């Protein structure tokens, strides 16, 4: 089976001039690819392009072998995502939100209770979403993204607001999905954490992918900042400015 997600020369620019350029990478079945970059590097824009929330102005995004723009609605049910904030109806309970998310993706609603147990949401399952703590909201969003057993998982900073126990739970669930053949793309600023589960760690700086990070070193943070510094200096020498 080929790549589940494939970017080929993808570029997108907002009216203010920020954006991403020449993005090229792929994520295979059973693979966890982590995306690392400073705030403003373009990680969320890349995620939105992967999910069809933005359309490439240059290049091509393919999901399951098809151009994302041509992907039928049913195929999007094979995708699980959480970008920026968990999508939910504030007046509905956790359990109700999970059921709706499952139905929208064509999943088996019997998995809702599995998700409640797996993500340790039973104490708040009948509480309205708007009354949840930030951590419980995030776990609800993650449960909604993964409960239907998607073939592609796209998560933007999924560790936000999670306590240490929930971070370990997240790691376990992502490893589980990858073990079942899902392709996983996850962005994070927690270098040590993603290094534990990622098959590849891609570096992003100022709207471009600048290579891979070797996760076998002792000081990942120092190696990351050094690569970013080198890229900044190269661009300044080449007169690329601050794009």
From TrEMBL:
PROSITE patterns associated with the record: ABC_TRANSPORTER_2
Q: Does the record's keyword annotation contain ATP-binding? A: yes
Please indicate if the UniProt record lists 4Fe-4S as a keyword: no
Protein known as? ABC transporter ATP-binding protein
Alphabetical list of SUPFAM superfamilies matching this protein:
P-loop containing nucleoside triphosphate hydrolases
From the UniProt record, which GO molecular function terms apply? ATP binding
Q: Which family does it belong to?
A: Belongs to the ABC transporter superfamily.
Q: Which organism is it from?
A: Nocardiopsis suaedae
Return the Pfam families for the record: ABC_tran
Q: Where does the source fall among the domains of life?
A: Bacteria
Q: What keywords does the record list, in alphabetical order? A: ATP-binding, Nucleotide-binding, Transport
The residue ranges of the ABC transporter domain are 5-231
